[in-house]
Design a protein that fits this description.
With about 350 residues, the chain is α/β, with parallel strands linked by helices. It contains 14 helices and ten strands.
């Protein structure tokens, strides 16, 4: 039986379901590797980079957005997101002396990220590959590498590899500032609790939004990455027209398109980003939108439906918030008659230049 026919068997979504549920054990395994990640962080800290650049595509681009907040808040360094085409299409070769370049790719096989990393290294950057494939071309190109250790992922939609990438980035960046991953230690058990306690609310949300035509996803701060990942997951598995906005940006124009026909998935944690969402969601609620709030502070905002997750430090909250998001994408896809293990027109590895 071929892999494609295996995916399209009588149990659609079983790979994605299993990989979502595997994340607590993936987190445990990765936390055990923190000393090795700390060694790489030590090299970075010794070189004292003057700023950081992040290169990524797809779900990894959303992990890079999370890393952007980590570097700017925890390390207080300026951060930029790389546009790979400036190198691959236009031949730009900037001086990157004393720059940290993090190249994030679950497969490590995208030619544009390999080329960006190669150019960055030759132009003075400290290059670090963050991948789920230690034998990848990206790992071979970068000076340093972090293996996210998520294991083989069979579903096309990235779930456990996304969560593992977030945790690896947190452990790396926290260690650069001299931290010991204190806020991450309880994540495996908190992830299990999240999956267990949110299941009924996620199923209800899938029933509620089964016939939705469009959805807006929104968050502030660290949770902006979760909002972006939510829009991608809903689009690629359920074929929803989903668009992500920062909570701040949502009020600067896009709010005009929000009405009683709009479903809004909002990330609402107990930290500063979540607090900043209260005013945003009050405005969205006034426009009659159906709001599904996900996070540890859902009772503090206007919402039509709530999916609670355990409270934790804000800087690691996206690792928990994304779990019900992934489950919702899975269940919505199944409710709408699709197979999230094999979305139409998509492959596991996308090669771009």
């Amino acid at each position: 039986m071929t892999e494609a026919s295996d995916r399209n068997s009588a149990d659609p979504g079983r790979h994605m379901r299993g990989e979502v549920e595997e994340q607590p054990s993936v987190f445990e395994g990765l936390l055990a590797e923190r000393p090795g990640i700390a060694e790489i962080a030590g090299i970075i800290a010794q070189r004292r980079p003057r700023f950081a650049l992040l290169a990524a595509r797809g779900s990894s681009d959303h992990a890079a957005l999370y890393a952007k907040y980590l570097v700017e808040v925890l390390l207080e360094l300026p951060v930029g997101l790389v546009s790979p085409s400036t190198t691959t299409l236009y031949g730009a070769s900037p001086d990157l002396t004393d720059v940290l370049l993090l190249s994030i790719s679950q497969s490590g096989g995208s030619p544009d990220l390999v080329e960006v990393t190669e150019t960055g290294r030759s132009n003075g950057a400290t290059t670090v590959a963050v991948t789920n494939n230690p034998d990848s071309a990206l790992n071979a190109t970068a000076e340093l590498s972090v293996d996210i250790r998520a294991g083989t992922e069979r579903a096309v939609a990235a779930t456990k590899s996304y969560g593992a990438t977030l945790l690896a980035l947190y452990l790396l960046i926290d260690a650069v500032r001299g931290g010991r991953g204190e806020h991450a230690r309880g994540l495996p058990e908190l992830a299990r609790t999240t999956l267990d306690t949110s299941a009924d609310a996620v199923s209800e949300a899938a029933r509620r939004y089964r016939f939705a035509d469009r959805m807006v996803t929104t968050g502030r701060g660290y949770s902006s990455a979760t909002a972006a990942e939510a829009a991608l997951k809903l689009a690629e598995t359920s074929y929803l027209s989903a668009r992500s906005y920062s909570g701040a940006d949502l009020l600067h124009g896009p709010i005009a398109a929000v009405d009683t026909e709009t479903a809004v998935l909002a990330l609402c944690g107990s930290g500063r980003g979540g607090e900043a969402m209260r005013e945003v969601l009050s405005t969205v609620h006034e426009r009659g939108a159906d709001i599904c709030a996900i996070g540890s502070a859902t009772t503090r905002v206007d919402a039509s439906h709530r999916i609670a997750v355990p409270d934790c430090a804000e800087e690691v909250a996206p690792l928990l918030e994304v779990l019900p998001v992934q489950r919702l994408a899975l269940e919505l896809a199944l409710a709408r008659g699709g197979d999230p293990d094999s979305p139409r027109g998509l492959n596991k590895v996308t090669r771009t230049r």
